[in-house]
Design goal:
Helix content: 55-70%
Number of strands: 3
Largest sheet: 3 strands, antiparallel
CATH class of the domain at 105-218: Mainly Alpha
CATH architecture of the domain at 105-218: Orthogonal Bundle
Number of helices: 12
Oligomer: single chain
CATH topology of the domain at 105-218: Cytochrome p450-Terp, domain 2
Structural class: mainly alpha
Radius of gyration: 22 Å
Order of helices and strands: EEEHHHHHHHHHHHH
């Protein structure tokens, strides 16, 4: 008799009469008792979050859910225009745009801060030691400038005078006792970068989200996944609005009718970052 391998999981299973999720009876113990954000955190970490952790985690999710007519939202709307019979395609199109310029900044910032902290002398400065964090941040920003690379989490195309999400997330982290070294270093970057880069840029909401999630202890490899979880709700909202008040056809026609043909020039090569 052929023996089949087993496939262990600590997430969910089911039988004829019940569904078990994270060791809990889904219908009896979780439904109506646990928020979706709390469950998402629990699924990622396998540890049930405290109320403080849930509040900060859900604050980050709210801040990342939607930001207007971003390329990801437009992609979702245009895909739904082409295939209204397959809403999964519209949502997937929007989520696939989560890269280094949009949505991926949260992961990039978390990794940047974690790398700086891992290489920093120990012990790290006390959380209220601004001078200590500023020194660490100044070295990190200087190193990035010398390498010709961007400092993730700095700048925003709209909120040039300050991203309103940033102080709110930092404030809630402090209120809940979850303000940690990633946020302290990120605030240090905000204070020291103008003198090094020669310009003042806001600490953006995506970056502070990465710092907050890292302080919560979420794995760096999953930070972008948390962003996509949040943005999926926003994309679903855009598709719903597209159904109620369509604009995708106008976007398509505006581009198509204003297309200007130019003869091919084989001497032109695309400027692809990293190529």
């Amino acid at each position: 008799m052929t023996e089949f391998p087993t496939f262990p999981t600590s997430l969910g299973t089911s039988d004829r009469s019940s569904i078990t999720l994270l060791g809990q009876d889904l219908a009896r113990d979780l439904m109506g008792e646990v928020s979706f954000g709390e469950l998402a955190y629990w699924l990622i970490t396998l540890e049930r979050p405290t109320p403080a952790q849930t509040r900060l985690f859900e604050t980050v999710l709210l801040g990342l859910a939607d930001h207007g007519f971003t390329p990801t939202a437009i992609a979702a709307r245009l895909t739904w225009l082409s295939a209204p019979d397959a809403i999964q395609g519209a949502l997937a199109a929007g989520l696939l745009g989560g890269g280094s310029r949009y949505l991926g900044v949260t992961e990039d910032t978390g990794r940047f801060l974690a790398e700086v902290l891992a290489a920093a002398p120990v012990p790290l400065p006390a959380l209220d030691d601004e001078a200590g964090w500023d020194a660490l941040a100044a070295q990190a920003v200087t190193d990035r400038k010398a390498a010709g690379t961007f400092v993730p989490g700095l700048g925003h195309p709209v909120h040039k005078d300050g991203d309103p999400r940033t102080p709110r997330i930092i404030g809630i982290a402090r209120e809940e006792g979850l303000y940690g070294p990633h946020l302290a270093l990120f605030e240090g970057v905000g204070r020291v970068h103008p003198a090094i880069l020669g310009k003042r840029l806001p600490l953006n909401g995506a970056g502070v989200s990465g710092a907050a999630l890292a302080d919560l202890g979420l794995p760096l490899d999953l930070l972008r996944g948390v962003v996509l979880l949040a943005r999926c709700a926003g994309l679903l909202g855009h598709v719903a609005e597209e159904i109620r008040r369509p604009i995708a056809q106008d976007i398509y026609q505006a581009v198509d009718r204003n297309a200007r043909y130019v003869p091919p020039d084989t001497s032109e090569t695309p400027d692809i970052p990293g190529a």
